[in-house]
Amino acid sequence: MTDFAGLKLAQPILRAITDEGYTIPTPIQIKSIPPLLEGRDLLGVAQTGTGKTAAFALPLLHRLAGDAGNAAGKLQPNKPRALILAPTRELAGQINDSLRSYSRHLDLRTAVIFGGVSARPQIQALTRGIHVLVATPGRLLDLMNQGKVRLDAVEVFILDEADRMLDMGFVRDVKKIVAAVPARRQTALFSATMPSSVQSLASGLLNDPVRVEAAPAATTAEKVTQKIFFVPKEKKRALLSELLKDKDIERVLIFTRTKHGANRVARHLQENGVHSDAIHGNKAQNARQRALDGFRSGSIRALVATDIAARGIDVDGVTHVINFELPNEPESYVHRIGRTARAGAAGIAISFCDHEERGYLRDIEKIIRQSVPVIEDHPYHSAEIANAPDSGKRGPQQTRRPSHGRRNPQRGKRTARIAA
Ligand code: AMP
Predict the structure, then answer these.
(1) Residue nearest atom 8 in ligand 1 by C-alpha distance
(2) Model pLDDT for residues 146-167, shown as the tens digit of each residue
(3) Which of 29, 62, 114, 286 is the most buried (most CB within 10 A)?
């Protein structure tokens, strides 16, 4: 398995990655980092949640800082060496935060500029000098026109969420910005989708690019049969035991939010005669390996994991994923359920949702653009949770229709069986 050290990034960057708690690169990182380190152009089909920010940010920082991590060079006022363009201020801010984290052991300066706020502090940062500029197109053009930023020293140009950029009507702005960036440069373009407008933008920008893809979240979510069980927190373990009576659940990955939670669930299952083990960051490497080997060989039927620990798990034949607790980041839900239905196989994802998790469920349904069918026919169903005030008015008889989503063919169907 590839680790970050195998990707040949400078030591200070590897240290920052360790500080962040990343242990294993995500697929888009494995595919993007080597060609970007070689100086190739890149077309990345990936959306938020895949780890795409680090996929372009780490090689960028490596290039600016040099192999030893100390060669970022003198700052030139108003002349960044790298430009990252993002469609919204939220995304620009997030990218800048990530860059700051990843460059915390480097002598390297970054700044972010976007509209809707005073330009003065942004101009001051530019005048002091920065290596990397993160910007939204409108404000960048403004400040270019005022002579506060010059792009002729840009060596690396990254365009993030290109499809959204075009949807928001930034195409002319982007073209003006591109015209101000030297032709001799490295360019990467990321987009969640590849409509012809993005393809034609890409073909004008990129020079013999490597194309890399990470499965878009919606595709993953569509392959998996998903179910929600509204259940009070204190009944979750009983419901889990009930479900695991079904022999169709052959190999199940169970997710909790915390390490202690993972231990508790694994212990409970073990006491109830289900072979299980927990895997998380507090466990020694050999204990984790033992758990994984057991899960792979089938001697362990239920593996209980936290999100971070699960990133490195690559096991085929996971018949079910059970979210004992819903994740507080909706992207994690997509990662979790993607552990089943691998390599085209069908998979089932069951989620428990208690009173406090209604908001998480709402966020998840927004990003997967589906309503997850509710299973009521079990001894622990809670109508109160199903009808909770923040549920977006969804009652047990009425599955909420997402505002902009595709229809889920499963929507509203109810099965009498607890687990299928
Ligand atoms: P992104 O798709 O860039 O928005 O990243 C999604 C989330 O994944 C962010 O919270 C990152 O901090 C996190 N992340 C990125 N790469 C890794 C990794 N290799 N291991 C663990 N978490 C990661």
Answers:
(1) 51
(2) 999 999 999 999 999 998 899 8
(3) 29
Judge if the beta carbon of residue 22 lies within 6 A of ligand 1.
yes
Sheet with 210-213: strands ordered across: 110-113, 132-135, 82-85, 156-159, 186-191, 42-45, 210-213
C-alpha–C-alpha distance, residues 124 and 383, integer Å: 56
Give the type of residue at 303.
Answer: L
Please give the number of the atom of ligand 1 that sits closest to the Cα of 331: 6
Between 114 and 280, the higher pLDDT residue: 114
413 pLDDT band, cuts 50/70/90, is: very low
The residue to mutate among 88, 158, 308, 331, having the most atoms of ligand 1 within 8 angstroms of its beta carbon, is 331
What number is the average pLDDT over the span 108-133?
95
What ranges in 170-212 are assigned the alpha helix state H?
171-180, 196-205
Question: 224-386 has which CATH code?
Answer: 3.40.50.300
Q: At the top level of CATH, which class does the domain 4-213 belong to?
A: alpha beta
pLDDT at 158: 98
> How many angstroms is it from 327 CA to the middle of ligand 1?
14
The whole-angstrom separation of Cα 339 and Cα 320 is 9
pLDDT tens for 288-323 read 878 988 998 999 999 999 887 776 566 778 899 999
CA gap 409, 333 in Å, rounded: 20
Ligand 1 atom having least distance to the Cα of 25: 19
**Cα radius of gyration (the chain):** 24
Domain ranges in the chain are 4-213, 224-386
* Residue to mutate (ligand 1; options 13, 14, 20; most atoms within 8 A of CB): 20
Q: Does the pTM exceed 0.85? A: no
